[in-house]
TrEMBL record:
One of its GO terms (cellular component) is cytoplasm. Keywords: Hydrolase, Signal. Residues 209-300 form the Peptidase M20 dimerisation domain. GO terms for biological process: folic acid catabolic process. One of its GO terms (molecular function) is para-aminobenzoyl-glutamate hydrolase activity. PROSITE patterns: PROKAR_LIPOPROTEIN (PS51257). This is Peptidase M20 dimerisation domain-containing protein. It comes from Hyphomonas adhaerens MHS-3. Residues 450-478 are annotated as: Disordered. The lineage of its organism: Bacteria, Pseudomonadati, Pseudomonadota, Alphaproteobacteria, Hyphomonadales. Residues 1-23 form the signal peptide. InterPro entries: Amidohydrolase, Aminobenzoyl-glu_utiliz_pB, Bact_exopeptidase_dim_dom, Peptidase_M20, Peptidase_M20/M20A_hydrolases, Peptidase_M20_dimer. Residues 450-459, 467-478 have a biased composition (Basic and acidic residues).
Length: 478
């Protein structure tokens, strides 16, 4: 759910890091150790890509990752935070505790073969259009490489991998934060599939979603229309009111929706209809202000159409709290690792995909580059935001897709099931490994990151979840 987006304004740009970086002997050895795990990473990502399990239903994907980590010597606790597919895998003792996040849910309603031409997979109602199969595999192999290093060197500390389900609209990490699972973590690392290599310090939008359910009276639409009250009329009136409201919300706000149920037959007045809404804004307070107006519009639509309405908040995420200290470190590690190099077959695949993109923002060839470091506002949202308010957090994107590919597209599904996705995942695994070892061995860096974190949160900060105290919506994709 985190598209790579253009900058909000040039005023947000920070200093650009352009100088080349070369791995020292320790880092070169670590990179080689990660490369030796490429077959494992590729196998994990391909299997999770095949299953394409949606949020809170990732039983096989979660089980595969857990079993892999158990075999590698991790202690695994499954079913944490009241979520059957969430888990925490840990190796080591004492501090510092470095966490790596791993996502593995697919997106419903979109699927594609691993082909550069549009070609749906028979019988599949979902696909990895955000590359979470790669996310899971890359984080897992990085955690294993770090475990091996801790074991070989005898360095004190704990590496912990968090299996975080349902990022796509389910806010799995929020429940894990709320359950206190990050309370003893020093630093959290994450990454994401993308169309470029970047460790830019990019914030995200806070967001909240809900399913608004209208209830009316069914009747024969021709024989007795006066006896009916259309729940679909309630939804349509609500949508019209919100669409008018779009003119009067802050510029950086985003509102979107889908009608998930609108009736079954035109000659039956529908007594039930449902619409699923998202609201986004750079701040949690901004989301809540717009949300109040959304609820008022729902009540008004119900009143005007003679129906009733209720709603269920499905998910809510805080914005990402950027830690520039950690972001600059991650950028330097990414530059040590470098980008992706296509072979001839991959070039041909990329060129075919590229021809299907409407407005690609990067050329083919940029996959081998590292994008400039900058501080900017992104318009996607993620439950990593809540983690970033619990513990200093940093991430990166790597070129797992053809340059210019948008997230949540069939082109992203296709590349996520190929060697192009594998190569970008290797870049992420290597970078995460180097970053974690730097954090284990550099207490001054950890202290500086914590100082920035405390200053940005403020002395009076108290965590507040945008989804309230509800239980995880384990059936929201059913």
């Amino acid at each position: 759910m985190r598209p790579i987006l253009p900058l909000l304004s040039t005023a947000l740009l920070a200093a650009c890091i352009t100088g080349p970086a070369w791995p020292d002997s320790r880092d070169a050895n670590l990179i080689e150790q990660v490369e030796e795990k490429a077959d494992l990473s590729n196998s994990l990502s391909d299997q999770i890509w095949e299953w394409a399990e949606v949020g809170y239903q990732e039983e096989k994907s979660s089980g595969l990752l857990q079993q892999t980590l158990k075999v590698e010597g991790f202690d695994v606790e499954a079913g944490v935070a009241g979520i059957p597919t969430a888990f925490v895998a840990e190796y080591g003792t004492g501090g510092p505790v470095i966490a790596i996040l791993a996502e593995f849910d697919a997106l419903p309603g979109i699927n594609q073969t691993a082909s550069p031409d549009r070609e749906e997979r028979d019988g599949m109602g979902a696909g990895h259009a955000c590359g979470h199969n790669l996310f899971a595999a890359g984080s897992t192999t990085a955690a294993i490489a770090i475990k091996d290093w801790l074991e070989e060197t005898g360095t004190p500390g704990t590496i912990r991998l968090y299996g975080t389900p349902a990022e796509e609209g389910g806010s799995g990490k929020v429940y894990m934060v709320r359950a206190g699972l990050f309370n003893d973590v020093d630093i959290a690392l994450h990454w994401h599939a993308g169309d470029r290599n970047s460790a830019a310090a990019r914030t995200t939008l806070a967001n909240r979603s809900a399913k608004f359910r209208f209830h009316g009276l069914s009747a024969h639409a021709a024989g007795a229309p006066e006896k009916g009250r259309s729940a679909l009329d309630g939804v349509e009136a609500f949508d019209m009111m919100v669409n008018m409201m779009r003119e009067h919300v802050p510029q950086d706000a985003r509102i979107h929706y889908v009608i998930t149920s609108g009736g079954s037959a035109p000659n039956v007045v529908p007594d039930f209809a449902e619409v699923f809404y998202y609201v986004r804004h750079p701040t949690a307070d901004g989301v809540e202000a717009i949300w109040t107006r959304l609820e008022d519009a729902a009540r008004g639509a119900a009143l005007g159409t003679g129906t009733t309405v209720d709603w269920e908040v499905i998910h809510g995420n805080n914005p990402l709290l950027v830690n520039e200290t950690l972001a600059k470190m991650m950028d330097s590690k990414l530059r040590e690792v470098g980008g992706v190099t296509y072979n001839e077959e991959e070039k041909a695949f990329a060129e075919t995909i590229y021809a299907t993109l409407t407005t690609p923002t990067l050329p083919i060839g940029s996959e081998s580059e590292i994008q400039p470091f900058e501080v900017s506002l992104g318009y996607g949202s993620t439950d990593v935001g809540d983690v970033s308010y619990a513990v200093p957090t940093v991430g990166l994107n790597t070129a797992t897709w053809v340059p210019g590919t948008p997230a949540h597209s069939w082109q992203a599904v296709a590349a996520s099931g190929t060697s192009i996705g594998h190569k970008g995942t290797q870049v992420a695994s290597k970078t995460l490994t180097l970053a974690a070892i730097e954090l284990f061995t550099n207490p001054d860096l950890r202290a500086e990151a914590r100082k920035e974190f405390d200053e940005k949160r403020g002395p009076d900060y108290q965590y507040r979840s945008l989804l309230g105290d509800r239980d995880p919506p384990l059936d929201y994709r059913k």
